[in-house]
Amino acid sequence: MSFFQSAVRRPLDYYEGEFYSVDFIRSSSWNGSESNFAYLNLDGNQFLEIGFALGIDSIADGRSFSAFDFDRDGDQDLLVVNRNAPAQFFVNHWADNTNNNWLRVRLASDDGRTAVGATVKVQTGNRIQAKTFSSCNSYLSSYAGPLLFGVGTTDKIDTVEVFWPGGTSSQIKGIAANQEIELHFPNTSRTEKKF
């Protein structure tokens, strides 16, 4: 008999000094009615919890989320998947009335290879941001869309550099903000899409 079978067949399981039945463990949430949180990065060293102010502090039993630019306006929207409730979709309108700009970078291949593992570095003035392309961005969720970079009030990105899987790199300079660019590997071709 395997460990898994014997553990499942036991009538009680032990957890931190208390006994719970296997049926209880299988049917219950360990986090109960905790609110979802969202943190605002104030200065790189401090964070402010703003879930209530944004209206995303639901007490549904959230299990995973995915952040992506659903409405293609340059900010991250959220999809939260709950355990015993419908999924919740939150459209971000936080930056609608600001002068902040953005750049979306889509990585592609002409021969069907994946860009998973590629790192994109975006430089605007002295500020450098880097993101690694992955097919997942959260526990129990996935998203293989473009990488989104907030570039503040600047209207031109100095440099976009991609470090591709396998060790090659590509670089383009002087890109206008508020657009999506598509970069192909191993050769770099630039496709600008205005939205």
Mean pLDDT: 78
Count up the domains: 3
Biggest pleated sheet: 4 strands, mixed
Distance between the termini: 60 Å
Shape: globular
Molecular structure report:
It is a single chain. The chain has helices at 3-9, 22-27, 51-54, and strands at residues 12-15, 18-21, 39-41, 47-49, 62-68, 77-82, 88-90, 101-109, 119-124, 127-132, 147-152, 156-163, 169-176, 179-185, 191-194. It is mostly beta strands and 195 residues long. It has 3 domains: 1-30, no CATH class; 39-90, no CATH class; 101-194, Immunoglobulin-like (Sandwich). Strands 11-8-14-15 form a 4-stranded mixed β-sheet, with no helix packed on it. β9 (119-124) and β10 (127-132) form a beta hairpin. The longest helix has 7 residues, at 3-9. The radius of gyration is 22 Å and the shape is globular.
Provide a quick synopsis of the model.
This protein is mostly beta strands and 195 residues long. It has 3 helices and 15 strands.
